[in-house]
Write a structure and sequence with these properties.
This protein has 236 residues and is mainly alpha-helical. It contains nine helices and two strands; from the N terminus they run ααααββααααα. Strands 1-2 form a two-stranded antiparallel ribbon.
């Protein structure tokens, strides 16, 4: 299922895919209707599960459920509006409407988060540079590198941490030792990141990036099916 979805969006033109995510994010962020929020949340969770698989989705949901509960509990402590008073806490009314609003507000935030995860899975750095490389070349390059850099740093941190454990750097399981070992891993990661950044800059300079008259090749072609998909997205 995940492969089919990825192949479909790979065939789709970047402008059509970008407009799809833009419209989905606008609907998720600008609407607080309970039905629409619920549909956005369920659809974003389903979409993300189709892209990354059920196991990774469950780990992501493990963070969303506590957030929903936390906002549902804390929102009535600061917002006291509502007609149905359940009880009083420090002489302040705790209303059912405030609890419900906190639940749907947290669902809206998680919908935006899951849609951004889906966006990062589908809209690669090449597609982002293709869309905005001519209009804002420097900014598009920086943003695309940031989007690609964060997952790489996460994977590199895990690799360094596993290598340090294999070498026996973690002497004990004490809290202080774990902090000291994590700081060592972080230092190695930052050093490696700086070296990679210098190598990337030298490589870009050697390939003539930023020179006048430099051309680029794009493999994307806007087809009639892309136009139909774009019109359907904007009309919906």
């Amino acid at each position: 299922m995940a492969g089919g979805i990825m192949r479909y969006f790979d065939r789709l033109h970047p402008i059509s895919a970008f407009c799809y995510f833009l419209m989905m994010l606008l609907v998720a962020m600008l609407t607080m209707h309970p039905v629409i929020v619920t549909v956005c949340y369920l659809s974003s969770v389903t979409f993300l599960g189709m892209l990354i698989g059920g196991r990774k989705l469950l780990s992501s949901l493990a963070y969303s459920v506590p957030l929903v509960l936390m906002l549902a509990v804390t929102n009535p402590m600061f917002v006291h509006r509502g007609e149905t008073i359940l009880f009083f806490l420090n002489d302040n009314p705790v209303t059912r409407e405030a609890i419900v609003y906190g639940v749907f507000a947290s669902m809206m935030l998680m919908s935006v988060f899951y849609l951004c995860r889906c966006y990062s899975e589908i809209m690669t750095a090449d597609k982002f540079i293709y869309l905005f490389g001519r209009a804002i070349p420097k900014l598009s390059l920086v943003l695309s590198m940031i989007l690609a850099f964060l997952p790489k740093m996460k994977r590199k941190f895990r690799e360094i941490d596993e290598a340090q454990r294999a070498l026996g750097i973690y002497a004990t399981e004490s809290y202080v030792d774990r902090i000291r070992s994590r700081m060592r891993v972080l230092s190695i990661l930052l050093t490696n990141s700086f070296e990679t950044s210098v190598e990337t800059a030298d490589s870009m300079r050697a390939r003539g990036y930023g020179l006048r008259g430099r051309t680029s090749y794009a493999i994307y072609r806007f087809t009639p099916s892309d136009a139909m998909y774009l019109l359907f997205t904007l009309a919906a």
